[in-house]
Amino acid sequence: MLTIKHTETTPNGLFEAWLEDVHVGELTYRRTTPERMIIDHTRVFEGYEGQGIARQLVMASVDFARQNNRTIIPVCSYARNVLTRSDEYKDILA
């Protein structure tokens, strides 16, 4: 089962994906203001691609943004692709 862990230190944040005790991917962001986060990188490690891990990392960041009244600027091409293809995420896009 995939577990997503989140850590935030001003001004940076990290969502990490874990399968059991194996670190399989990450999404990094930085905050430009208390209300805005820029997703700058999403990465799934070799051998774990194609399992939906990157999407789950992006969705974890969306949930976090909504719960904390933040908006997202998706600079990372993968995050931008996921978040701009549907009106479902209009509320959190900066």
Q: What is shown here, in short?
A:
The chain is of the alpha+beta class and 94 residues long.
Key phrases:
94 residues, alpha+beta, Aminopeptidase, five-stranded mixed beta sheet, 2 helices, globular
Describe this structure in words.
The chain is an alpha+beta fold. The protein has a single domain (2-92), classed as Gcn5-related N-acetyltransferase (GNAT) (Aminopeptidase, 3-Layer(aba) Sandwich), CATH 3.40.630. Helices cover 24% and strands 44% of the residues. It contains two helices and five strands, in the order ββββαβα. It has helices spanning 53-67, 77-84; strands at 2-9, 12-19, 22-33, 36-44, 71-74. A five-stranded mixed beta sheet has the order 1-2-3-4-5. It is globular. The N and C termini lie far apart (32 Å). The model has no long low-confidence stretch (mean pLDDT 96).
Widest beta sheet: strand line-up: 1-2-3-4-5
Count of extended strands: 5
Please give the radius of gyration in angstroms: 13 Å
Q: Name the helix and strand elements from N-terminus to C-terminus, one letter apiece.
A: EEEEHEH
Instruction: Identify the CATH homologous superfamily.
Output: Gcn5-related N-acetyltransferase (GNAT)
SS element count, helices:
2
